[in-house]
Amino acid sequence: MKILMYSIYAFDKPFIENATHGKLEIEYTNQALNEDTAKLAEGFEGISLFTPDNASDSVLEKLYFYGVRYIALRSVGYDYVDLKKARALGIKVANVPTYSPYSVAEHAVTLLMALNRKIILGQKLMQMGDYRLDHLVGFDLHGKTVGIIGTGKIGAAFAKIMHGFGCQILACDPQENEELIQQTNLSYTTLEDVCKNSDVISVHCPLNPETKYMFNKSNFMLMKKGVIFINTARGTIVNTEDLIDALKMGNIGAAGLDVYEKEKTIFFGNHINKKLEDHLYTILRSFPNVLITGHQGFLTKEALERIAQTTIVNFNAWAYNGLSKNELK
Ligand code: NAI
Predict the structure, then answer these.
(1) Residues ≥6 apart with Cβ < 8 Å to 209
(2) Which end of the chain lies in a sparser environment, N or C, as judged by fewer CB atoms within 10 Å?
(3) What is the pTM of this model?
(4) Dist. CA 154 → ligand 1 center (Å)
């Protein structure tokens, strides 16, 4: 099977090369899939995509025209693919359902701890020779209430870490995880309750029509003043304009973001010496109490190995009998 991998970077290519076996002929491009780059897939039966790509309705039509029948995503999330359209065209799509939930959960904790204990500011001050502690006061996590939105694989890993810190955990998820209740003494409640009662809120649900802008003015207003808000899930779950207003008003004490709603034009690229056109992002980045990372939650060796292995397994299964167990329905 001839495969083109879009959005391949120096950080993931060696893992894919190491994992490759079977009768796969793989070519790579660092370009993201969009209306203009769909043509690169001409003559390839399979393509592999990652979060910077955009497999919208019209892009999928082009891909089908060029001969693409299989798409293996190198991610858990599949919000950047129009699955309904792919199904209608008969293009099979598979994801990597699990790789390392710890990678993202631990990154969420990293953002939380760096914000709470003012690690970035402390480092900057020290480098300038200012060893005063006056601006660096944080709070104990022990005994605080942590709200978790989505207790699937990543949310559960995050809950266990927070339980280890001695936090009370509130969660909201339409699918309650009984085992997690036993393990962490977590209580399921409504989104409203989580917002009202948590000192820290961390988002771990998928982006879909129901969760788009789930965090907006109305629930930012409900939150405890000074709450630390963490989002490592998807940017569009949060209304960024409303988040900026909540930060300005001090409702939100600090925000740790690994994702941003318009990240596709910024993240994963080199913008040194370029003016960023995204005004909203420029404002967000300017807050001293906002810590942004460029969608690197998944970026551990263990996760990259699993992503590469599962992607190759998906293609080999399709090449062998046209069926992969990770196909998205
Ligand atoms: P998962 O499918 O195991 O868990 C998602 C959970 O969210 C499920 O329990 C589901 O019932 C729950 N959920 C769905 N709708 C909800 C709603 N309206 N309110 C509350 N909960 C809801 O997925 P997993 O592996 O835990 O990943 C979660 C998300 O993390 C992915 O969808 C992806 O967007 C994001 N992610 C981010 C990465 C990064 O590098 N920053 C890497 C991997 C995933």
Answers:
(1) none
(2) C
(3) 0.96
(4) 7
